[in-house]
Every structure is written in structure tokens, then in C-alpha cells.
């Protein structure tokens, strides 16, 4: 049995994670835009007597690493000493991808190139002579289509073969100008007597990195008291010139190799440019995007309706069956109010969440998302946000947790902090049940519009918050927007379905554990002390709600709503779950809410607004703390959310009552 550790490296959006999923039989998130993966994911595949340990890295254009996610990739490549590096190369864009190859080759690790997206290259009539590529670079090249698994077996065989080779690697040399080569040799020689300080880097490669301007390595060597020949003597202008020479040599190499290996027949002009002109139009871009989102929410609300009715029907049957069975009233109350009432009221919204995930996944896979980011950039800049923040925001509609992590693609610290503080205003899928319930009960046919309004409100609050923070805290300008527009790709129905299923399953798992636990606690609080009427003001839940209710009296919330908010800190799904428990069961929930004299459409609206803005959930809180790295900003982020929620809900109540009556 032999263990083999490999790293999957490559430019962003070339299909690394798709290959990873197919190699390891897992389902990590993929999407057609750069920066989907921001931290290393580990997986394993067993092949006969080999265990292949695979790490999927964030995408990177070079090893110079400007953003936190690129740094993660660079550090893994330079310090983790894997048995092989597999570079995934996008066959439709070889020259740019080979630039990274010229850097990876010099690290000196065994390498394999996986020529991915070969199906698209064929479609675009790009013919690649893999043999010529292989001969030229002296690196094995395997043609694959990660999305359907084509060529993966051959790739695995090749990986095993290169790791078993005993001879040192001997790749194509990059032809630097003579002056550069002499300095590299001089520095390399000097560093050979200090190899212990270089970690896993060879002296020759360390010399190249220093010449390219690796400040991190330079500082580390200086900290050890080393005086580096040439580097320490030359002036910044000269160093910039050398770094540029190295860059040019790399570009020349990638161009040369591409010219020899790639034949493009001039196929029909892709309509992509034309489509882009419309979708990213100065005037129409934003309305097109908003209409897309509006349709998405209408579909989410209406498409899930038949399922909703079905699930409600099933729960109705359960309740009836239970009514026919003799049992202890205590257990009956537990099953009827706690389990069916609480968990059931959350489960009925699962279809909406499934539909929402499938729409988001289709948007991600077509490449439209990156266009939307581009369209929004000018606007985002004007309000003090970075165009790239837009993608974390959109991911936030699914779940805030990965969205907060996705801010790692932002280069500037200020941009990251502002984005992290504002992401929780993006309404995640777990908040949807609250809207579907309240909008359905209090706004009837206008429910879809109310939900759309809430999502837009979340975005508006995020924008205003960003403006405030940019104006008063971080005065610098957001850094400029650089993001590659991915090509349009046909979304794979299967991939979208798989994505939906896994996301939905995660939600169900949470429903099973967190929500069930939360609902159980609410049921107990509503039942005890023994002898009180279930869910009445005398129960523990009633007492708890009443203690905090005065705080929310200006917002018009009754004590049941307040209990929902308290439990909503754990997870938003628990809000509806606990209301279901308190209002006497899932079947009763809607009619009880409608009949409750302490509630009205405008209070319901204020409540939805509060739920949208106040606090994401404990899981998101944990990630905010992790990504911001300190308590001060974490507390500011959370405190800001609660303050804003209170103010906006208050305004909603008072302004709303002018329009829709109190
Ligand atoms: N047609 C086609 N599409 C592919 C193939 N491999 C991946 N894709 C699609 O390309 C997009 C990007 O795939 P990912 O696996 O997320 O790319 P990545 O390299 O991990 O991207 P980052 O994590 O952002 O660096 C997704 O929409 C995939 O469905 C392929 O072989 N053929
Ligand atoms: Mg990825």
C-alpha cells in the first residue's frame, strides 16, 4: 500500500474542483466564475494498492499571490512538498494557462498536465497536439473532460507513473536574458550554503523567486541576518526591470509552446460578444439583472407551491392518524405540537429552498453571474464596495457562511471587512420560510412581490451600510476591479440537480438536528411548568417572551414573535419552527396567525424586515469571527446588524401603516 499526495493547481475556473469531485466521489461547490474555491479541500481515492490523497487548491494566475485565496494556493505549492502537482489547464485558453505552468515547472516537483474542457475545445474547433505539448514541456499531458469523467483513469495512471519515477525532473528551461541567468546563479550559489533556511525550496528556485520580487522570502532571509548578493545592492528600478524581464521570458515561453501545439481553425464568431454587449450594457445591464432576480423569486415562490400543498397534506394525514390512536396526552402534545407542529412547519418550505438552489446553480454555471458582477461594479464602486464583492453577496442568498469565506478573493483588507459586515444583509435561504409564511398569510397574491421587496431591501441596507463605513471608517477608495469574464457555458442539468440535492440535503440535515433540537426546547418551554395551558402566557416560553417583549413593543411584536427571534439566533429555520410549536401545530399555524388580533400585515412586514436584518445565525457568526480575525470587528459587525434591524423595522412599521393600515 502506498500513499500518494497530489495537489490540483491551476488558473481560476478551469475545472479543478470538478476534477476533484470526480476523482474523490465528492460534491464540492463548482461554478462558472473565478474564485469559487477559496480554501484547500482534501479528498481521497483508492486505486488498487495506492491511496491517492488529493488537495483541491483555490485558483491562481501566478505564484505571486495577491489575494488571500491565491496565497493559500501558493503556500501549499511551495511548502507542503506533495508527491506530484497536477495542473489543470483549460484547453480553450492554453496560452494564459501555460504562464502558470512556467512557474510551477521551476518548483521542481513531479508534474502532470490535465488538459480539461477538451469537449469545449472540440466544439470551438481548437485542435491541440497533446504530444507536441508534452514533448515541448517534457511534462506528461492527459486530455480529460472533468465534467463527465472522460480521461480520468488515464490521468490517475499517469500520476502514479510520475510519482514512481526515480530520476529528478527535467522540464523545459525558460530562457531568461543572460544578465538574469548570471544573477540567479550567483544568488543560488550563495543560498546553497543556507539550504536549511529555505524550507522546501531549492536554492536555484529560491534565487528565481527573489529576482521576481518575493518579498516574503526576502524578509525571512533578512530576518535570519543574511545579506543576499545582488538583491541587497540593486536599486528598486533595476529590480523592477529584472522582474519584468522574467515575466517576459515566461510569456515568450508560453506563447512559443502554444504556437507549436495549438491549431485554431477560425470557426464561426461566437455570439458571446453580442450577448455580452446586451447583458453588460451601460443602461440595460442593471434592469436586466433585476428582472432576472425578480423572475427567480417568482419562480421560487410559485414552483414550490404544489410540493408545499403535498407536504401539508401528508402532515395532515399524520395528524389524523395520531388522533385515532390512544396515547398519553403528554406524548400526544409532544408529537402533535413539537414534532409535527415545529419540524413540519419548517419542512414544508424545503421545496422553495430546493428551487432556489437550482436557480442559483444555473445562474452560476452559465457565466451570467460574472457579467452581473461586472455590470454592478461601477455602481458598487460608487457606493464604496468592490465589484468582486458582488459574488460573495450572491452566494449569500444561498447561505451566508460560504459567502463570508468567498471574500477571500478580495485583495484589500478594507474591502474585505466592509463586505463581511454587509453580507449578513443578503437574505439566505433559511430566512425564506419566514417570508413565505408571513407574506402568504398577510399579503396573499402579493406575496411574491413582498419577498422580492425584502431581498431588494437587504441589498439596499447593505449598500447604505457600505457607504457609511467607507465614508466614516475606511476612507480609501475600493481597489480597482479585475476579474476575468468566464465564457458562457451550457449549464449541465445533472450538475445543477446534484448541486440542488446536496444543498437541500444539508438543509434537511440541519432541519434534523438544529431545528429539531430548537423546536424541542420551545415545546418544553411551552409545556412547563406542569399544569399550565400549552403555549400560554403562563408557560416558560410565555414568561421568556414577556420578559423581552417590552424591548420589541415599539416594533409591535407579540411575545410569540419575540420567542421566535430569540431562537432565530441559533438558526433562522427555528423561527418558523418555534412559531409552529407555539401556535398549536403546523396545520393551525397559518390560520392562527391570520386570526391573531395582535398581528397585522404591517407588523408582519416589520417582523420579516427584522428577521432579514438582525443576525445571521451562530454558524455565520463563527465564520465572521474567523475571517475578520478579531473580536472588535466581529462585535461591530453583529452590533451593526441588530441596530440596523431595529431602526429599519421601526421605520417599516410606521411608514408602512400609512400605506397598508395598522
Ligand atoms: N464543458 C465543460 N465544463 C466543465 C468541465 N470541467 C468543468 N466545467 C465547468 O466549468 C466551471 C468551473 O468549474 P470549477 O470546477 O468550479 O472550476 P475551478 O477551477 O475549481 O474554479 P475556482 O475554484 O474558481 O478556481 C463549472 O461550471 C463546471 O461545470 C469540462 O470538462 N467541460
Ligand atoms: Mg474550485
TrEMBL record:
One of its GO terms (molecular function) is GTP binding. InterPro entries: Fe2_transport_prot-B, Fe2_transport_prot_B_C, FeoB_Cyto, FeoB_GTPase, G_FEOB_dom, Gate_dom, P-loop_NTPase, Small_GTP-bd. Mg(2+) 1 binds at residue 22. It is found in: Cell inner membrane. It is a multi-pass membrane protein. Mg(2+) 2 binds at residues 21, 25. It comes from the Archaea. GTP 2 binds at residues 35-39. The keyword Secreted does not apply. GTP 4 binds at residues 116-119. Keywords: Cell inner membrane, Cell membrane, GTP-binding, Ion transport, Iron, Iron transport, Magnesium, Membrane, Metal-binding, Nucleotide-binding, Transmembrane, Transmembrane helix, Transport. GO terms for cellular component: plasma membrane. The keyword Transmembrane helix applies. The chain crosses the membrane at residues 338-363, 383-405, 417-444, 450-469, 511-532, 604-624, 636-660. GTP 3 binds at residues 56-59. Its main location: membrane. GTP 1 binds at residues 10-17. Residues 3-165 form the FeoB-type G domain. It holds the Pfam family FeoB_Cyto. PANTHER family: FE(2+) TRANSPORTER FEOB, FERROUS IRON TRANSPORT PROTEIN B. This is Ferrous iron transport protein B. It comes from Methanospirillum stamsii.
Amino acid at each position: 500500500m502506498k500513499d500518494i499526495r497530489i495537489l490540483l493547481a491551476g488558473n481560476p475556473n478551469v475545472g479543478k474542483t470538478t476534477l476533484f469531485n470526480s476523482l474523490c466521489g465528492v460534491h464540492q461547490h463548482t461554478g462558472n466564475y473565478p474564485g469559487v474555491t477559496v480554501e484547500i479541500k482534501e479528498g481521497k481515492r483508492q486505486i488498487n494498492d495506492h491511496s491517492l490523497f488529493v488537495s483541491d487548491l483555490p485558483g491562481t494566475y501566478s505564484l505571486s499571490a495577491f489575494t488571500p485565496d491565491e496565497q493559500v494556493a501558493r503556500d501549499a505549492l511551495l511548502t507542503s512538498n506533495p508527491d506530484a502537482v497536477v495542473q489543470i489547464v483549460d484547453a480553450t485558453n492554453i496560452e494564459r494557462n501555460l504562464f502558470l505552468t512556467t512557474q510551477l515547472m521551476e518548483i521542481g516537483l513531479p508534474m502532470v498536465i490535465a488538459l480539461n474542457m477538451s469537449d469545449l475545445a472540440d466544439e470551438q474547433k481548437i485542435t491541440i497536439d497533446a504530444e507536441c505539448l508534452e514533448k515541448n514541456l517534457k511534462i506528461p499531458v492527459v486530455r480529460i473532460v472533468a465534467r463527465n469523467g472522460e480521461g480520468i483513469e488515464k490521468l490517475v495512471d499517469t500520476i502514479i507513473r510520475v510519482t514512481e519515477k526515480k530520476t529528478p525532473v527535467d522540464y523545459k528551461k525558460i530562457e531568461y536574458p543572460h544578465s538574469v541567468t548570471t544573477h540567479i546563479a550567483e544568488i543560488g550559489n550563495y543560498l546553497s550554503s543556507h539550504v536549511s533556511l529555505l524550507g522546501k525550496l531549492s536554492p536555484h528556485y529560491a534565487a528565481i523567486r527573489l529576482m521576481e520580487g518575493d518579498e516574503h522570502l526576502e524578509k525571512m532571509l533578512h530576518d535570519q541576518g543574511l545579506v543576499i548578493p545582488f538583491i541587497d545592492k540593486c536599486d528598486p528600478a533595476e529590480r523592477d526591470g529584472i522582474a519584468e524581464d522574467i515575466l517576459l521570458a515566461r510569456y515568450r515561453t508560453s506563447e512559443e509552446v502554444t504556437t507549436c501545439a495549438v491549431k485554431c481553425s477560425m470557426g464561426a464568431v461566437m455570439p458571446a460578444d453580442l450577448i455580452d454587449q446586451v447583458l453588460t450594457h451601460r443602461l440595460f445591464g442593471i434592469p436586466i439583472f433585476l428582472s432576472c432576480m425578480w423572475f427567480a423569486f417568482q419562480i421560487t415562490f410559485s414552483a414550490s407551491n404544489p410540493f408545499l400543498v403535498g407536504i401539508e397534506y401528508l402532515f395532515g394525514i399524520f395528524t389524523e392518524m395520531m388522533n385515532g390512536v390512544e396515547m398519553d396526552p403528554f406524548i400526544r402534545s409532544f408529537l402533535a405540537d413539537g414534532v409535527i407542529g415545529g419540524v413540519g412547519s419548517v419542512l414544508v418550505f424545503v421545496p422553495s429552498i430546493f428551487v432556489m438552489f437550482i436557480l442559483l446553480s444555473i445562474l452560476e454555471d452559465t457565466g451570467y453571474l460574472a457579467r452581473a458582477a461586472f455590470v454592478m461594479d461601477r455602481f458598487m464602486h460608487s457606493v464604496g464596495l468592490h465589484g468582486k464583492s458582488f459574488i460573495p453577496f450572491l452566494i449569500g442568498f444561498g447561505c451566508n457562511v460560504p459567502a463570508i469565506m468567498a471574500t477571500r478573493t478580495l485583495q484589500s483588507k478594507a474591502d474585505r471587512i466592509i463586505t463581511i459586515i454587509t453580507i449578513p444583509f443578503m437574505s439566505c435561504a433559511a430566512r425564506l420560510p419566514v417570508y413565505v409564511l408571513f407574506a402568504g398569510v398577510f399579503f396573499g397574491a402579493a406575496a411574491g412581490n413582498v419577498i422580492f421587496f425584502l431581498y431588494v431591501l437587504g441589498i439596499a441596507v447593505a449598500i447604505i451600510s457600505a457607504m457609511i463605513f467607507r465614508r466614516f471608517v475606511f476612507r480609501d477608495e475600493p481597489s480597482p476591479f479585475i476579474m476575468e469574464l468566464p465564457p458562457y457555458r451550457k449549464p449541465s442539468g445533472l450538475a445543477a440537480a446534484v448541486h440542488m440535492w446536496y444543498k437541500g440535503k444539508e438543509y434537511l440535515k440541519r432541519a434534523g438536528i438544529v431545528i429539531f433540537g430548537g423546536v424541542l426546547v420551545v415545546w418544553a418551554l411551552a409545556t412547563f411548568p406542569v399544569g399550565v395551558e400549552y403555549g400560554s402566557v403562563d408557560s416558560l416560553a410565555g414568561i421568556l417572551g414577556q420578559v423581552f417583549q417590552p424591548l420589541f413593543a415599539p416594533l409591535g411584536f407579540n411575545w410569540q414573535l419575540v420567542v421566535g427571534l430569540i431562537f432565530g439566533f441559533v438558526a433562522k429555520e427555528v423561527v418558523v419552527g418555534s412559531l409552529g410549536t407555539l401556535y398549536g401545530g403546523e396545520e393551525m399555524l397559518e390560520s392562527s396567525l391570520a386570526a391573531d388580533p395582535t398581528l397585522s400585515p404591517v407588523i408582519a412586514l416589520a417582523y420579516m424586515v427584522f428577521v432579514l436584518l438582525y443576525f445571521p445565525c451562530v454558524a455565520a457568526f463563527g465564520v465572521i469571527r474567523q475571517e475578520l480575525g478579531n473580536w472588535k470587528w466581529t462585535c461591530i459587525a453583529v452590533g451593526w446588524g441588530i441596530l440596523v434591524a431595529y431602526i429599519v423595522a421601526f421605520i417599516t412599521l410606521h411608514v408602512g401603516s400609512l400605506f397598508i393600515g395598522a
